[in-house]
Amino acid sequence: MSEAHGGPLAHHFHDLDQQREAASLGMWIFIAQEILFFGGLFGVYTIYRNLYYEAFAAGSHHLSWKLGCYNTLVLIGSSFTMAMAVYSAAVGRKRAIVGYILATILLGAVFLGVKYVEYHEKIAPCFGDGPHTGCLVPGARFDAGALQLDGARAREAQIYFSLYFAMTGLHALHMIIGVPILLWVAKNAAAGLYTPAWHTPVELVGLYWHFVDIVWIFLFPLLYLIGHH
Amino acid sequence: MAQHHIVSWKLYLGILLVLCVLTVATVGVAGHDFGALNTPIALAIAVAKATLVVLFFMHVKYSPRLTTLVLSAGFVFLLLLIVFTGSDYISRNWPITPAG
Amino acid sequence: MNSGEQDARKTMSSQAPLTLPKRHYLNADYGVRSWLLTTDHKRIAVLYLVSVTAMFFLGGAYAVIIRLNLLEPTGSLVTAETYNKLFTAHGVLMVFFFMIPAIPAVLGNFLLPLMLGARDLAFPRINLLSWYVYVVGAAFTMYAVVAGGLDTGWTFYTPYSTAFSNTNVIAAGVGIFITGFSSILTGLNFIVTIHTMRAPGLTWFRLPLFVWAHYATSLIQILGTPVVAITILLVAMERAFHFGFFDPARGGDPILFQHLFWFYSHPAVYIMILPAMGVISELVTCFSRKKVFGYGFIAISSLAIAGLSFMVWAHHMFVTGLSVYAAMIFSALSFLVAIPSAIKVFNWVATLYRGSISWQTPMLYAFGFIGLFTIGGLTGLFLATLGLDVHVTDTYFIVAHFHYIMVGGTIMGYLGGLHYWWPKITGRLYPEWWARVSAVVVFIGFNLTFFPQFILGYLGMPRRYHVYPPEFQVLNVMSSAGASILGVGYLIPMVYLAWSMRYGKVAPSNPFQSTGLEWRTTSPPPTENFAETPIIDEEVYDYASPPKEARSV
Questions:
Q1: pLDDT in tens, A133-176
Q2: Do C326 and B87 touch (CB under 8 A)?
Q3: C549, C11 contact by CB (below 8 A)
Q4: Other C-beta atoms within 10 Å of C502: how many?
Q5: Residue A88 in domain
Q6: B99 assigned to some structural domain
């Protein structure tokens, strides 16, 4: 492979195979550490769900499982379009790469839009004066009455919502960070930088996006579907 | 290397459909009471979905074994965190027999 | 000029003084931009060297004030509140900004590509990024420390840190969070490099033990650091938004914080010691002129330590109200994790046996390490013992235990390695006599500082207290006196190492006649490390054969 300026081979690698192997392993290691990063929250969730099951179920009932289900399908769809983007790169269809990446971004934006709606209905009541009915942000203004809880259960439900915001918030943050990266890859694809022989950046950003999807695959049942029977 | 194996787009479509079905199943299963098996079943479906994404969308099925090792390491150590921490909470109130 | 020609010149005319190679990584380019925008792993290592040294002395300054305060039982030098901020700053700066990065980011960064026969690490720009992340994290943390300080201890225990402390918890937490990514990026880079960039013929079991040690360290960095990262975020969220994960008043459990915190922070101490063990393996074999005994055992023991280190964390929590049954399991596993460390010590000693030992400075540090690490490690077994730990936990016994390992162990390993590879890094020899003197001063000062603390702890003096019962004064004064000697021992190398960069004797490419690829290129190496990629066809540590000249392959 050419080592000329602008060629994809970096100077410290012998050939593209080595470079590809290194880039791929690096991305997987990054994903492994992300598993531990999110995993800490899942660990906290596991402990408190077992300690405070009723409060968690009450909190979970308050979420819209329909929106959650819809969002899950949207995100899975975006994983499909991302995989198709990688496929397009592997078969050398430049415009398809860009199209599928844009579709991925679009679906991601839909997901984030739904998230905004969900957050808004829980956070908006917390502002201003007045009874703050329906405020579900943990703290002084938390409206336990909306969940028909009081006393210890009310406190425990606040932990549920703390986890809800922390976990979905961190997840949403990862999606938000992914969007400009996807745009950058799309830009490069449009400029013809990716070929069947070298399209590793598309693969790597795909791995990131799929990982974010997998986190949500677990978040959905764990947050939205507690004790629905 | 994943590089040399191009997964057919039809397979991707198939996986997408299976994932959608499993998502519907997730909701459906949540509506029934399987007693102590509720959580394991929900988790099993989620694990199945994640496995499909990992194997096919992320190409792990066609990747070197090192990739599987790296991914597994992440999950294994997370499991370690949860299980060992959990062991404290589960056994905190177990009786301690006094010296007899 | 490759080092083969340079050594040939040396053989041809032993009277002619050595000169530095015409072209090397230090003179490849000039100016601040060439340093701040470098992607050369060797220059990045030097950037880290400057940063970690600065943080070491800053953290050490806090230790000086602590020891000054402890000269008197009434602790009248500083108030209790200030004292809390002092030991917190000392701990935070030393742990996160010196101990964890020092050997990997300085020696590891410099040597790994050389030892592997590679031109650079797998991701040179990420390497530079990791340094910038470190600097930003350090800036944040220093801001927190300077603007009012932090008084929670480096351990940030809740609910004090989340609900009661009036100090800059969030700022410090953010700083440490950021710095954690520096650690993760370094570990990621090392693992990928070791897997994918070994020179032809360099199989896993021909790798220097320094490489194995850094591989194991990198595993811990990648798997452990993210957990403390999310934990710090949770503390920040709790403090800022009153979430309640760790606050009993809100249904949370403070012990859960400790589980999450120590899940990382125990393996973290192995991040601190494993690289030093890697250095010692290199020093012991070179200065006994003998292949290290039990190479395979030492290599695998590094991996075993990395794995087992994740299963013992709750031995920091025996007195918290932890389940007794969990405590027993963690205690047993803590005994188990001592075994691979002991295997290393036995193998080093077996290497020394019937070796041809020379007493250059790096070997002095290696001997110091073996003795002091053994003491520190054995006292760790005392602490793994449930009954005894209840007695000595939160006393100076613990303080002495971990300083024996971290200072008597890691810092001696760091200094030994720094001196051993100094000629490679700078092209200059350090002054041997001064170096030996300061190694001895460090050893004496260290023991005088920390051995009395074992006794103090056993007698019941609590840690993190700015006052103590008067009957402990003699031992405290001894400890403070030792600290001043130790300080001198650390300052002397700063002076002569700096001096040597300009006035030291020019070093040959292989001043200690060592095996290993890093010695087969010039001192200092050229930017691309090797003129041609080396091809390996001999076993590691082959001291039985005559020393290899640098090859132009």
A1: 889 999 888 888 888 888 889 999 999 999 999 999 999 999 99
A2: yes
A3: no
A4: 8
A5: yes
A6: no
Domain-embedded: residue A69: yes
Structural domain includes residue A115 = yes
Task: Classify C462 as helix, strand or coil.
Answer: strand
Q: Which of residues 78-117 of C touch B (CB under 8 A)?
A: none
Residue with tokens 């691979």: C340
| Integer angstrom CA distances of residue C286 from A17, A87, C158, C417 | 36, 52, 47, 12
Is the Cα torsion angle C318, C324, C325, C331 positive or negative in sign? positive
Cβ density class A93-117: b for 16+ within 10 Å, e for less: bbebbbbbbebbbebbebbbebbee
Burial class (CB in 10 A: 0-12, 13-18, 19+), B25: middle
For residue B96, being part of any structural domain is answered with no
Q: How far from each other are the two terminal CA atoms of chain C, in whole angstroms?
A: 14
3-state secondary structure of A10: coil
Cis (ω within 30 of 0) for the bond into C524? yes
What letter represents residue B19's amino acid? L
C323/B94 CB distance under 8 A: yes
In chain A, how many H helices and how many E strands?
A: 6, 0
Tell me which residue range forms the domain holding B50. Answer: 2-91
This prediction has a pTM of: 0.95
Q: What is the SS3 assignment for C233? A: helix
Q: Is residue B32 part of a domain?
A: yes
Domain count of the fold of chain B: 1
pLDDT for residue B2 is more than 50: no
**Cβ atoms within 10 Å, residue A32:** 25
- Structural contact between residues C113 and C214, judged by C-beta atoms closer than 8 angstroms: no
User: Is pLDDT at C6 greater than 90 in this prediction?
Assistant: no
Q: CB distance A25–B66 less than 8 Å? A: yes
Domain span at A104: 17-224
Place of tokens 């703290």: A139
pLDDT tens digit string along C55-74? 999 999 999 999 999 999 99
Q: Which of B44, B21, B46 is nearest to B34 (CA)?
A: B44
Give the CATH number, domain containing residue A93: 1.20.120.80
Q: What distance in Å separates the CA atoms of residue C386 and residue C335, rounded to the nearest whole number?
A: 11
CA distance C131 to C139: 12
Please give the tally of structural domains in chain A. 1
Q: What percent of chain C has pLDDT over 70?
A: 96
3-state SS of C36-90 is HCCCCHHHHHHHHHHHHHHHHHHHHHHHHHHHHHCCCCCCCCCCHHHHHHHHHHH
Query: Which residues share a beta bridge with C506?
Result: C428
Cα–Cα dist C214/C147, whole Å: 36
Chains near B, with 3+ CB pairs < 8 A? Answer: A, C
Helix (H, G, I), strand (E, B) or coil at C428: strand
In a domain, A119, yes or no: yes
Instruction: Decide if A44 and C256 are in contact by the 8 Å CB cutoff.
Output: yes
Backbone angles phi, psi at B15, to 5 degrees: -60, -40
Could you please state the CATH topology (level 3) that the domain comprising C43-520 is classified under: Cytochrome C Oxidase; Chain A (1.20.210)
Instruction: Tell me the chain C residues in contact with residue B66 when contact means C-beta distances shorter than 8 Å.
Output: 195
The 10 Å CB-count burial string (b at 16+, else e) for A198-216 is bbbbbbbbbbbbbbbbbbb
List CB contacts (< 8 A) between C223 and chain A: 32-33, 36
Instruction: Report CA-CA distances (Å) from A15 to B5, B66, C124, C210, C553.
Output: 19, 20, 16, 27, 19
Q: Which letter does DSSP use for residue C469 in this model? A: -
Please indicate, yes or no, if residue B85 is contained in any of the structural domains. yes
Beta carbons of A159 and C243 less than 8 Å apart: yes
Which residues on adjacent β-strands are paired with residue C395?
C462
Residue C462, beta-bridge partner list:
C395
Kindly state the average pLDDT of the residues C174-185: 97
